[in-house]
Amino acid sequence: MKLAALIAMSLAGSLALGALFRSSDDDPTVVDGAVELTYGRGVKCLFLVLGAAMLALTGVLVAGSIFGDPDPQLDRILPIVGPAFLLLGATAILESRVCLRIDERGIGGRSAWRGYRAMRWDSIERITYSSSTGCFKLRGRSGEVLRVGRLLRGHQTVVAAIEGGLTNGVGERAVQRYRNARVAGF
Q1: How many angstroms separate the CA atoms of 60 and 133, rounded?
Q2: Rounded mean pLDDT of 38-62?
Q3: Rounded distance, CA 61 to CA 57, Å?
Q4: What is the C-alpha separation between 9 and 150, in angstroms, rounded?
Q5: Alpha-carbon separation of residue 181 from 132, 152, 164, 168 (angstroms)
Q6: Beta strands in 33-163 (DSSP E)
């Protein structure tokens, strides 16, 4: 019985993740000639729900520590777990707002982790793709890094920019790795 429940939960989780990945294949928004890469509705909801749950859990832990019966074990872990949940919850909510813009000059945008970044296509010296994280990693000549995740709606625009020659041949191996991962179902 427990094995059947575990298999059912794994299957449901796999189907849900598959739906999230497929939603990233939707067409991106075009504003003033620039393509905007944002998370789809499902991914945004996932980030918002996870963020809200982490913040609520932090509140429950703090309220339990203040108003509940004294619990030495809770009092020991709260200073570690509380800030971690608070940070993760806030970051998940901020991550739901990621937006990158791509045009013929370059790519730029904001993320929860690194703030605003921008690169001209001709300043990119290396592009890699990791199938385990589902991210293109663009590295500029001055060392700045910009990541474009697979869950962003319109991430294929980066592939089109590389194939279209905007990066002067940089990143062709990354595109091949991306295509191989897509064929394999990642």
Answers
A1: 32
A2: 87
A3: 6
A4: 24
A5: 9, 16, 21, 23
A6: 34-39, 99-102, 106-111, 115-120, 124-130, 135-140, 145-149, 152-153
Phi–psi pair at 139, nearest 5 degrees: -115, 125
Residue with tokens 């791509």: 102
Enter the pTM of the model.
0.73
pLDDT in tens, 102-130: 998 999 998 877 788 899 999 999 999 99
Q: Judge contact between 111 and 144, C-beta under 8 A.
A: no
**Could you give the CA distance from residue 28 to residue 98 in angstroms, rounded to a whole number?**
13
Token pair 């990945």 in the structure block, residue: 21
- Summarised one tens digit per residue, pLDDT across range 64-100 is 778 877 778 877 888 888 888 889 899 889 888 888 9
Of 170, 35, 30, 24, nearest in space to 102 by CA? 35
* Mean pLDDT lowest among 25-29, 40-44, 163-167: 25-29
- Alpha-carbon distances of 9 from 6, 14, 62, 82, rounded to whole Å: 5, 9, 31, 28
Edge-first strand order for the sheet with 124-130 is 124-130, 135-140, 145-149
Query: Which of 119, 115, 102, 120 lies closest to 158 in space, CA to CA?
Result: 102
